[in-house]
Amino acid sequence: MKLKRLNIALPKGRLGEKVYEMLETLGYGCPGLTDGSRKLIFEDDGGITRYFWVKPSDVDIYVERGAADIGVVGRDILLEHNPDVYELLDLGFGKCRMCVAGMAGYEANPNRTLRVATKFPNIARSYYAAKSREIEIIKLSGSIELAPILGMSDVIVDIVETGSTLKENNLEVKETVCDISARLIVNKAAYRFKNDEVRELVEKINTVYKNKVEK
Known about the structure:
Helix content is 30%, strand content 29%. The chain is an alpha/beta fold.
């Protein structure tokens, strides 16, 4: 039986390049994908895969709506957007943490509404709702660390990799919200109608990289 083509959405940047290197070693290579071409869609000669590079925060949307069968996205995006997809694997790439951070020595007043600056309002709301903590969300798109430095917020909720940016700006991690890593996700319809192809890919990843299938 001829296998159906898999449409795969890769996040632009280092994460996507690392994931593609893995897929290429597993037999899912595609000529020209890493040559710096301005093409938007890349197809392999054998009809096995079709790739496209997309903005990391858009990967789950392409997969949820069926434009892509499979995608790779950070757990932070999944928690923030809560897309209607299946999460198949923790790939173990791009490990970092979602944290609450504030000025060194700062202690929050439990009797006052906490001002939280973040790119991830849904994650922040969910985290503090579980703690029954009243907060005010300040939605920002970049330079989150500036908010507490300038007194605009009490704390931030953001991704922390090494923590060096925090230290250089007299900030420190106060709490860890959750661990973050790259996840392999699949469109629900594709999981049904291309199950053989999806399962073969997952099995190859597990065989070579010894990752655990979560769902």
